[in-house]
Amino acid sequence: MTTRLSSGMGAVAHTGAAARRPRWRSRPALIALAFLAPALITLLVLRIAPAAVALWQSLFQSGLLSGDRFVGLGNYVDLFASPDFQGALGVTLLFTVLINPIQVAVSFLLAVLYTKRLAGAKIWRSLVILPIAVPPAVSAVMWSVIYRPDGLANAFLDLFGIPPQPFLTSPQQALVSIMVLLSWIGVGYWMMFLIAGINDVPRSYYEAASLDGASSWRQLWSITFPLVRRPLAFVLVADTVSNLLVFAPVQILTKGGPEGSTNLLMYDIFTRAYTLGDLNTAQAEVVILVLVTVLIVGLQFRLLKAED
Q1: Local confidence band at 65 (pLDDT 50, 70, 90 cut-offs)
Q2: DSSP string covering the chain
Q3: Looking at the domain assignment, is residue 65 inside a domain?
Q4: Residue 53 counted as domain residue
Q5: How far apart are CA 66 and CA 255, in angstroms?
Q6: Which domain holds residue 219?
Q7: Is 50's pLDDT higher than 80?
Q8: How many domains does the chain fold into?
Q9: Tens of pLDDT along 247-256?
Q10: Does 67 map to a domain?
C-alpha cells in the first residue's frame, strides 16, 4: 500500500514538473529558429530586401519634372540596345571565361606542391597567402606602381631584352594586367581551401599507390583530383562569383579603359548610377548581373553534377 502511494505521488510530481516545463523546450523547431533568427534577419535586410528594391526600381524611370514613371521592361530594352552595355557584358564574360580556370588551376597545383614534404614549403606557402592580408584597393595602388613605364614589371622584362610594355594603357594588355593583379590576390586564398581538402585525403592511399608503382602524376590524377572534387567545386563557384563582382582594381587602375577594354559590369553599374545619375537603369543592370551570375553558377553546378 505504501509502495503504491509513493509511486502514485511520484507520478503526480512528474506530471506537475512536465506541466511546469516551458513549452518551447518541447519544440526543437522553435529553438532552432531562435538560433537561426540573427542570420535570417541579416540575410533579409542585407541581401533579399536590397535585391527586391533593385528589381522594383528597375521598372521605373525618374525625371526632375515627371517624377517616377513606370516603364516596365523599358530600362532593360534600352540597356541591351546600348553599345556601352553590350561591350561591358562581352568584356565581363570574356574576363570570367579566362580568369576562373587559370586561378583554380594555379591554386590547385600550388596546393598540391605545398602539401608535399619539401624543404621551405611552409615558407613559400606563407608568401603566397600573404597578399590576402592586403586590402584590394591597396593592392591596386601597389600594382599601379609596378605597371608604370619605369616600374618593376618593365625592369624585370628588360633583364630578358624585352622592350617596355604599356600594360594599363594598352587595350590589348589592360584586361590581362587586371587578371594578373587579381590572381596575385586570389590564388593564395583559394589555395588554402584546396590544401585543407588535400590534407583530408588518407595517406594510406598514396602509400598503396606507391607500392603498386604509380607515378606522382598518376597519383595526382587518380587519387588527389577525384577526392578533392568537392573543395574544387566550391572554389570554382566562389571564385566565379568573386570575379563577377570585381570593382576596386578597375576603378583605381583603368576606370574601364582604355577603349572600354576593362569596363566590367560592376564598374559600368557604378558609372551609370553615380556618374550619369541614371539610377533606375543601373538597378536594371544590377538585376542582369545577378541573373548572369546565377546562370553561370547554375551551369557549373549542372556540369559538376553530370561529372559526378
Answers
A1: low
A2: -HHHHHHHHHHHHHHHHHHHS-GGGG-HHHHHHHHHHHHHHHHIIIIIHHHHHHHHHTTEEEETTTEEEE-TTHHHHHHHT-HHHHHHHHHHHHHHHHHHHHHHHHHHHHHHHHTS--TTHHHHHHHHHGGGGS-HHHHHHHHHHHTSTTSHHHHHHHTTTPPP--GGG-TTTHHHHHHHHHHHHHHHHHHHHHHHHHHTS-HHHHHHHHHTT--HHHHIIIIIHHHTHHHHHHHHHHHHHHHHT--HHHHHHTTT-STTTT--HHHHHHIIIIIS--HHHHHHHHHHHHHHHHHHHHHHHHHHHHH-
A3: no
A4: no
A5: 32
A6: 81-307
A7: yes
A8: 1
A9: 999 999 999 9
A10: no
CATH code at position 187: 1.10.3720.10
Cα–Cα dist 231/180, whole Å: 23
- pLDDT-based confidence at 22, cuts 50/70/90? low
At 5 the pLDDT is: 43
Structural domain contains residue 200: yes
Residue 90: how many other CB atoms lie within 10 Å: 12
Model pTM above 0.85? no
If you search the block for the grid coordinates 503504491, which residue do you land on?
4
Determine the average pLDDT of the residues in 240-252: 93
